[in-house]
Design a protein that fits this description.
This protein is mostly beta strands. The chain is built from one helix and 25 strands. The relative contact order is 0.11. Keywords: Signal.
């Protein structure tokens, strides 16, 4: 008899500590979402869990105290408006607003040779909103996105603009998206002359900042030379080593446009220099 009385006292004490009843619905906009697991975590990190039924309704008993609420679901999370600390001291009805989990967009910006392009400015547009980000030093980027149509534009100095339009579906994160940027090219055109007449058949070299030869051409019968398809966003110089003339090398200049008057005037070597 004493054991039964003791058990009853313990039961009543336990029940009284869980005397607060919380009821409500799990909802996405105005639609009730069922089979959603809900965790109530108190200040001591004790967890009290329940699950909404197929109608999206839930109910549980809690001790009085302060709680944060977490949602465990593959497709949904608790809305930002409900991501707060709650104080429960009496029975309460609490409808929980949900929002769809964002998908993850992962991709890489590559050049035409398949190498990653760092620090590319990216603009993502979706659902009337615009977001800005940059690729990292390896050309990689990632960003949380919603389901639906999405456009992404990539831009960097020295390259033509690139981009993609994709349809993001539920439960299908977008991974390994590759955007290829084509280099922007320019040309350099000029005449080789001795100051009086054009010089045909002269070897003209294009050099980088390390004085390495990038390309070489010969002046035509009218003295014209031209370097084509020079990758933008680099410093170059033109040079000539022609027998009977002094060595020539131009100042370095930055290629970001076409140069059509990069003329070369060669000076003859003096007799004591021959």
């Amino acid at each position: 008899m004493k054991r039964a009385f003791l058990f009853l006292c313990l039961f009543l004490l336990s029940f009284s500590s869980f005397a607060i009843q919380i009821t409500g619905k799990t909802m996405l906009d105005k639609v009730q979402i069922g089979q959603v697991k809900i965790d109530f975590i108190d200040a001591e990190n004790h967890s009290y869990s329940t699950k909404s039924n197929f109608l999206g309704e839930y109910s549980l008993h809690l001790p009085e105290g302060y709680y944060r609420i977490y949602i465990e679901n593959e497709n949904y999370r608790i809305a930002e408006s409900h991501n707060q600390v709650y104080s429960f001291s009496k029975d309460r009805t609490l409808n929980l607003s949900l929002e769809k989990k964002k998908q993850q967009l992962e991709g890489m910006i590559l050049d035409e040779s398949g190498y990653g392009v760092a620090d590319v400015s990216l603009e993502i547009k979706q659902n009337g909103k615009t977001y800005q980000l940059q690729s990292d030093k390896y050309g990689k980027f990632q960003f949380p996105i919603d389901c639906g149509l999405l456009s992404i534009f990539a831009q960097k100095e020295g390259f033509l603009e690139g981009g993609e339009v994709i349809l993001v579906r539920e439960k299908r994160p977008v991974k390994n998206l590759q955007i290829i940027l084509k280099k922007r090219y320019s040309y350099i055109l000029g005449i080789v002359t001795d100051g009086v007449k054009a010089l045909p058949g002269v070897t003209v070299r294009l050099r980088n900042e390390n004085l390495e030869t990038i390309d070489q051409v010969f002046s035509n019968p009218l003295g014209y030379y031209q370097f084509r398809n020079i990758g933008n966003n680099q410093k170059v110089a033109v040079s000539v080593y022609e027998e009977g003339f002094q060595e020539y090398i131009s100042d370095f200049f930055f290629v970001d446009k076409n140069y059509e008057k990069e003329h070369i005037i060669l000076r003859k070597k003096e007799k004591n220099m021959l």
